[in-house]
């Protein structure tokens, strides 16, 4: 499952980068493009780091960063949509929301095992 999520996160990052390439060459377009690329690649990179954590607490800590970055992806995709920079983004927005939900559930499970 971890390798599947690593692959899925990397694919998501590529999709976000491709989506942002079409943003207009305006100050707002550049700003949102940079923010979205930063947070989507951070999701993929930090999930890989979480997978290699040496302790459960380390995993939870890294996963918390992944959750924050994934939620930020949702924000920037929605913001770009609100600003009419993108029109058809439901698939990538749903993927961002699904990934965020998966990470939240994983963190909850990990936190329960640490408390035992």
- Kindly, what is the distance between the CA atoms of the first and last residues, rounded to a whole number of angstroms? 24 Å
What is the CATH level 1 assignment? Mainly Alpha
Q: Which outline best applies?
A: elongated
Number of helices: 4
Q: Spans of 5+ residues with little confidence (pLDDT < 50)?
A: none
Number of strands: 0
Radius of gyration: 15 Å
Write a structural description.
The protein is mainly alpha-helical and 116 residues long. The protein has a single domain, classed as 23S rRNA-intervening sequence (de novo design (two linked rop proteins)), CATH 1.20.1440.60. Helix content is 84%, strand content 0%. It contains 4 helices and no strands. The protein is elongated and about 50 Å long. The mean pLDDT is 94.
